[in-house]
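Late entry, written up from scratch paper. The run itself happened at the end of the previous shift, but nothing got recorded in the book at the time, so transcribing now.
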Amino acid sequence: MAGATSACIFCQIARSSTPTSLLHSDDRVVAFEDVNPAALRHYLVIPVEHIPTVRDLKRRAEDYTLVSHMLDVGRMLLQRDVPQSKQYRFGFHQPPLNSVNHLHLHCLALPFIPRWKHMKYLSLGPLGGFIEAEKLLDKLKPE
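Output as recorded:
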């Protein structure tokens, strides 16, 4: 696994070196439940390859395809597990507000539980905050 670090908990999960139950696994990504859920359902989709943050992604086909695949997996899991949900959110925390330095897509089936947790998932404009997956894809789309 290129760039993997033994200290990175998400690299350990991607290598199945932890007891974390995987909801999805393929050659590019794994998905699992967030240990501190902020919504009715809260999953994380991470790349198997160690990529620290959204700032390490570039406007190129490889990164666009990876994020698009992460989003497809997250959508599939939530639609399978909570089809009755009226609203889903998909996005990434940007530094310095990311909790783990390994790229991870938050997949949320709303409502937020408790309600105040929505604060962690707000965009802070030029300061960063939470970026919706679709907005990140727009930034990464090759010209």
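The chain has one domain: 9-140.
(Scratch paper discarded after transcription.)
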